């Protein structure tokens, strides 16, 4: 990728890494499904009055809203509200990179490289270590952990929808119009599950923290983050772009520790490190294999001979 695209990816990492602390503040102010409704209502309205609908089939537009918007955040917001630590949520959610690679292989016929398979196994091992390492210092409810994995799967599905939409799709249009369906879905789900009394209580007791959380989630995380992410996915292979998201936990874990005072056990730090190693394998494994394949056998002999002469 060009340098400016790498920089765009790093900006997304920063915005989405801080996103988890903001979500924690948000679910403290609103029930999780109502928080989703408010977020996507702000994304959709009044922007749809000025931004034309994206030129893609209605089916893809609805799938985008159902997977990347509703599915991902219904699961994620609920997980954090049920006790999933924000910092660890930022890490577990990045398993979407591997879901994306697998789904792209099944639906788009993108080849899964050997090093990507190894990376998936390593990262899965790391996630298992994190869950097994839960202790009193940083408990991880199993149900909340599974909800976070469901959010990651939904994100992976959404990545494929963006890829299917193609590089010509206007991402602002896709984000804006794709938020309409989820906004109504979230509101309906909140009404049926959380109840009208809790909705009215939350809305009538607004705080600056709650309002600020919704604004950040709607504009910084959604418009800026997903616009850049979508453009990168549309122009580059899924297997190249999505692993960059595994850098998000670096910001997520640090910000959660600094702001929310979340602490990890030694075993959980070990699991986090294993996941990051999986990222490294996925990003650099292909380059290493290509280097080994293109380097002539006698090159290593010449390097060793030159080293011996210097000695």
Automatic annotation (TrEMBL):
Keyword annotations for this protein? Answer: Membrane, Transmembrane, Transmembrane helix
Q: Which residues form a coiled coil?
A: none
The answer to whether the entry has keyword rRNA-binding is no
Q: What is its main location?
A: membrane
Annotated membrane-spanning segments are 7-27, 33-51, 60-82, 88-108, 115-134, 140-162, 174-193, 205-228, 240-260, 266-285
Ranges of residues in domain EamA:
7-130, 144-281
Compartmental location? Membrane
Entry GO terms, CC: membrane
Ribosomal protein as a keyword? no
* The protein's name: Membrane protein
Superkingdom as given in the UniProt entry: Bacteria
InterPro entries documented for this protein: AA-Vitamin_Transporters, EamA_dom, EmrE-like
From the broadest rank down, the organism's phylogenetic lineage runs: Bacteria, Pseudomonadati, Pseudomonadota, Betaproteobacteria, Burkholderiales
Organism of origin: Advenella kashmirensis W13003
Q: How does it sit in the membrane?
A: Multi-pass membrane protein
């Amino acid at each position: 990728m060009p340098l400016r695209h790498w920089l765009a990816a790093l900006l997304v990492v920063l915005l989405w890494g801080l996103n988890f602390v903001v979500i924690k503040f948000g679910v403290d102010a609103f029930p999780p499904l109502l928080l989703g409704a408010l977020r996507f209502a702000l994304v959709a309205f009044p922007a749809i009055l000025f931004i034309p609908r994206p030129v893609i089939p209605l089916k893809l537009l609805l799938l985008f809203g159902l997977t990347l918007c509703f599915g991902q955040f219904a699961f994620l917001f609920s997980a954090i509200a049920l006790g999933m630590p924000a910092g660890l949520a930022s890490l577990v959610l990045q398993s979407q990179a591997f879901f994306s690679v697998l789904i792209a292989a099944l639906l788009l016929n993108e080849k899964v490289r050997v090093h990507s398979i190894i990376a998936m196994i390593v990262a899965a091992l790391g996630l298992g270590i994190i869950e097994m390492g839960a202790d009193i210092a940083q408990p991880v409810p199993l149900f909340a952990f599974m909800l976070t994995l469901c959010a990651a799967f939904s994100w992976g599905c959404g990545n494929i929808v963006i890829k299917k939409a193609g590089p010509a799709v206007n991402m602002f249009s896709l984000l804006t119009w794709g938020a309409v369906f989820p906004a109504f879905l979230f509101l309906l789900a909140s009404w049926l599950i959380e109840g009208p009394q809790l909705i009215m209580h939350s809305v009538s007791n607004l705080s600056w923290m709650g309002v600020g959380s919704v604004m950040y989630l709607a504009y910084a995380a959604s418009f800026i983050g997903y616009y850049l992410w979508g453009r990168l996915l549309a122009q580059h292979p899924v297997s190249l772009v999505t692993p960059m998201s595994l850098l998000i936990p670096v910001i997520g874990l640090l910000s959660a520790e600094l702001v929310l005072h979340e602490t990890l056990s030694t075993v959980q730090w070990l699991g986090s490190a294993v996941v990051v190693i999986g990222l490294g394998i996925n990003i650099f494994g292909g380059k290493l294999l290509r280097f080994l394949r293109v380097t002539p056998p006698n090159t290593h002999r010449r390097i060793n001979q030159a080293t011996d002469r210097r000695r």
